[in-house]
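Morning!

As promised:
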Amino acid sequence: MIIVAVLSIIFYLLSLYRGFLIYPGFLLQVAYMLIRGIQLERLPLVGPHDTLFFLSSSLVAFAIPFMFSINDERQFVGSVSVIASVFAIFSLLSRPHNIPLPPVLRTYWFELHVGLSFFSYALFGIAAVLGFLYIRNKDQETEILQYKAVLIGYCMFSLSMIFGGIWAYLAWGTYWLWTPKELWTTILWIFYSLYLHARLRKEWMGMPSVVLGIIGFAVTLFTYLGVSLLMKSSHTF
Amino acid sequence: MLCPAYISVKINMFKKLLAFFFSLRTAIWLLLALLFMLLFGSLIMPARPEFSSLNSMPLFDWLGENKAGITWWLYGSILLLSLLTANTLLCSIESLIRKQQSKKWLLIISPQIIHIGFLFMLLAHLLSSTGSFRGNTVAYEGSALALPNNLAVAIKDITVELSPSGYVSDWAVNIEYLSDGKGIKEDYLKPNSPSFYKGLGIYLKDIRPYPVKTVLLEVSREPGAVWALIGGLLFMLGTVTLMILKIKKESSS
């Protein structure tokens, strides 16, 4: 089965030369997750192996609609492919979580919470890529696309936090816990709230908001990987 | 009698204060400051053992018991959130008044719905930070726990299912609420399905099938939960609406 995942990475890297090869790469990633899901009889969304792979495929899935709107498609596809490959490689280096889920994780709230979180992380990643392309090309259309990616990502992230709160209340009796992960999730949410508010002001439109969109993905990665790996919390891997 | 120059200075100060709270720039700087305050908190929290008790008691009670050396970022966050609340309220009112003639009412109202949702969530945290309650206890089949208001809860039956590899795959606990020793309501605790009665929630935190079926129960009261849910739903409604409208607007412009 691992060959399917490896092939997807190869296709992503080949898409640096022929952009359309990103599609078979994506289909192979979906196939890998489907096979894993069927084997585990659940959505494969637990542990760094599954979540990094899911993030990698989400990044490509959300990049596809942007590919039809962006002027510099080649650069965009290349950047997304490289990031998706890096996440997929790190995923394959992590040990898969194959044991059955504890009863508390077998709920749609968990799947909604985690799925939407990674969709939003992927969109924040796309926003960062678009930010770099804007710095390179100074194309106004790219800045607008970055704003759209952040807006959709923010919406999904907010939904993920709300669903997470409802689930936490049903599972543990509180919708909020004082842990570094919850604080960083709030930091990430405040950061993108700041981006969306700042962009309403003329002096923040263009380069300043684009830079914020790039920094945001660094905050996203720390919230996802840094806090989970370095700090003790309810979300530790 | 007050001199006119003094009154003029006071009026100017009041105008400046209002301008400060009506400003979007203020919101941006407050969000930035709050972000850094929480960042400091996330670094202090794992390093100090005092924070281990923060999740088991109301925030304001915990703040009263701990030194400012480790709690300053929480006080700072509360102050910034208070300022942000005033700023959100005033900006929303001002925006509604200024744009009341606009025909794009959904585009005008949806950010305000998001703001109201945010304020409800803050209210929820305020209520939970003052009036929440949490208590843990170990219970067995046949045992009973005392609850406030002359109530008790009896553990009638504990069912644990194990997978072939020995993991707990499912569980259910049959409980009965008692008033003066008489049964008044029967209920089940299941994964992600606690039992609620008269403002109290009963949760199963841990279960041991051997040597005797044992459960760790938590009795809790979270007065902010309903407000958090209302706030969350409003926030969700406003965000999704605004996202659709803004993307349409950006695509057509």
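Residues 140-172 of chain A form the longest helix (33 residues).

Hope this helps with the figure draft.
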